[in-house]
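The instructor's notes for this session suggest beginning with a concrete chain rather than abstract definitions. Hand out the sequence below and ask the class to guess, before any prediction is shown, which regions might be ordered.
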Amino acid sequence: MCVNELSILVVEDDDFQRQMVMSILRSLDVASIYDASNGQQAIEMIRGKNEKFVDIIICDLNMPEMDGLEFLRHLGQEHHNVSLILVSALGSRLLGSAARMAKMYGIKLLGAIEKPIALQQLKNMFLKYDRSENKWLEAANISDGFMLKDILQGIQANEFEPFFQPKVDLATDRLVGAEVLARWNHPELGLVGPYGFIPQLEQSKNIESLTFMMLEKASIALREFHDSGYTFNLSVNISLASLNDTAFAEKITRIVRNVGLDPCHIILEITETAAMTDAAHALENLARLCMKGFTLSIDDYGTGYSTMQQLTRIVFSELKIDQSFVKDLSDSEAMRIVVESCIDMAHKLQVKSVAEGVETQKDWDMLKSLGCDTAQGYFIARPMNLDAFARYLSGNQLQ
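After discussion, reveal the predicted structure:
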């Protein structure tokens, strides 16, 4: 989206700082510029509009009446569909903490900037803004509007399809695989992301129907890619709820083999909290999946409450570092240390380290210098449907 089409709200209590930011925005030919002196004034402005009137909010943290943190809480709890840039003179650690809080509230954070703000910094943030993604997020976040019966009808009508996000080897720049992500091709709303349907399916114990559909469609596609000379693996997400069924491993194996694919080409990603459960059924399934030839991956590593000892319970071959660590990697020494430790531990355990959420060249270069094996994220490519992924493969000369 062009900058001269953007509508921006500046929330800053210091008159000089506020005018300086607005002056920078005017020099960039921003279409509409609004301002507020604190969070209370800003949230009232947003609430007073029947329709979205700003695309991006530039918000300070330390303000009177309602500070930036309380403003973020209201912004997240009230589900206002805007993007956010945080600014502060209080240091990178506090900015980083506020940024993580914003993400937890579901706010689309473009970035955090230490004062004084420079023109180039804002230009870089605006480059990350994408109105089409905002619309997708809006559809993805209307999960309360979807009843379980509607979701199940969508599955029955075959409205769900796999999207593919490439995974690239950091040392060679070579594509080595892709993660399969479910999308609902809703007949009225268009593409709906996972938060619109996954929670309901998991809570009602209906997630397997979607898992099996995605696995079968992805496996058929992969077999056809292999037949065409493209050799790589696909990663598929597995829900904790599915691991309680002792027959789950057999069902998964049957689906993959029935389409003519060897299980060794499928990586099953299990969230850390699921992988570390001490439920016997889950551990039995994970062990059997290994015996069948599947590769197991610990997904979202670092976000669970497990101990180091639990990493040894199952023969994992891949450790995925959660994007919440990767996105702050370039600007936070603490995050760099955490990510470096994860990579080092993975290598000592003789498993692959995979970083998700890689969004910038800076992220890529840092991960490469730290010895990370594989990366995925918007810097490489966004998730794409099958046709777009086929074009991506041909363009990257994977054969």
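Then share the key points. The mean pLDDT is 84. The CA atoms of residues 105 and 136 lie 17 Å apart.
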